[in-house]
Amino acid sequence: MAESPMQINALIVDATDPERLAAFWSELLGRPVVARMGPYVWLLREGGLGLGFQRTDDPKSGKNRMHFDITSPDPAAEQQRVELLGGRRLEQYADGGFLVMADPEGNEFCVIPEGPFELDDEGRADYLG
């Protein structure tokens, strides 16, 4: 496959309160807020990838078409920390075996183990026991 001159530079999350959402993700990921420009709040770039939050007047509606998978040595233990920061578990996805959480504005993300884990033929995970 030929090398493409295009790369993903940053992921931008729409937010009705970008300061609040940036603070949540900053604490969760250990990436400090490093810039504010116009309607954007930016976290420290890591691994070449930027993460920004853009102010919008439109609240989130419906399921995300794209979500973050965040790794942790102990996903089950991480749930409490996410909730203390203002996130919540989305129980409607529990049958899939993934730890699906939502940030304070309802954006879905999964907390997955750092190492490999198994999926069954239906795509259900097994790492939560």
TrEMBL record:
Protein name: VOC family protein
Domain Glyoxalase-like: 11-112
Domain of life: Bacteria
Any one Pfam family match given in the protein's UniProt record, by short name: Glyoxalase_6
Residue numbers spanned by region Disordered: 53-76
SUPFAM superfamilies (UniProt xref): Glyoxalase/Bleomycin resistance protein/Dihydroxybiphenyl dioxygenase
